[in-house]
Amino acid sequence: MENNKKMSRTGYVAIGILVFCFLYFILWRIFKEKMPLNEYLSHIYKNYDYYASRVLIFLPVLILVFIILNAIRSTPAKRFLRLQSSLPTSKIHSVAKGLAEIEGTLVMKNPLFSPVDNEACIGYYYTIENIDRDSEGKESYRTIHRETQCNVFQVTDDTGTIEVEPEGIELVLLGETNISSHRGKRYKETLLKNGQKMLLVGYADSKNGIPFIRKDEHYKVLGITSASGITIWNKYQPLLRSFMFTCTIILLIIIYILTQ
Predict the structure, then answer these.
(1) What is the CB neighbour count within 10 angstroms for residue 93?
(2) Which residue from 57, 101, 170, 257 has the least number of CB within 10 angstroms?
(3) What parts of the sequence cross the membrane (predicted)?
(4) How confident is the model over 121-175, as pLDDT tens digits?
(5) Got the DSSP string for 56-115?
């Protein structure tokens, strides 16, 4: 179970920097010459319009850098998508020990009951969101809790059946199954259900000569997604990547022209 009430480390760092800059500016306005960096701050303060125009020019660059860093930041879902695009799909009967990709139909062993609709399932990804409304009544959502629960299940194809130990499993690119709202909160769940056709990436291992799939400790990945959905993703992902690259080049050219 994962609770999202705690702010990320990046959030704390960003808030800390903003608070520090604000307090330092207040102290500088009071003490000025006694404060370190007084000469630089005075120059910036006297030439505010110049520096403000420069900030407006370079702000898109900073935003672009932030987007790129966020895009390349490794997450279990991103590792799953990267690995599945390069791994061949193995048949269950002949899957070799190590990192593997298999595709087949889910088989439920011991059912869980989902928190939103009390629906029998293999596993679920569940979130609770606060519903915030602005002065115009437009709604926005902020996640305050998330969790993934999953029981041991099996995957079967035309060559055999293999068991999956789901500790650390990630549900990737799967849409919500059930949504409910009341008392200023929205509740969503994404379910793994018996009979669904899915694609799974994990580590093929064996116990007492019986093969099973678990989380890969090297790549830190055990992911599952819709077999049909991942086909569409793999088809259009290169186009999206090419579009983003083109937009980046155009933005850099525009910034270069503006700075001349």
Answers:
(1) 12
(2) 257
(3) 12-31, 51-72, 239-258
(4) 999 999 999 998 887 878 889 999 999 999 999 999 999 999 999 999 999 989 8
(5) HHHHHHHHHHHHHHHHHS--HHHHHHHHHHHSPEEPGGGPPSEEEEEEEEEEESS-EE-T
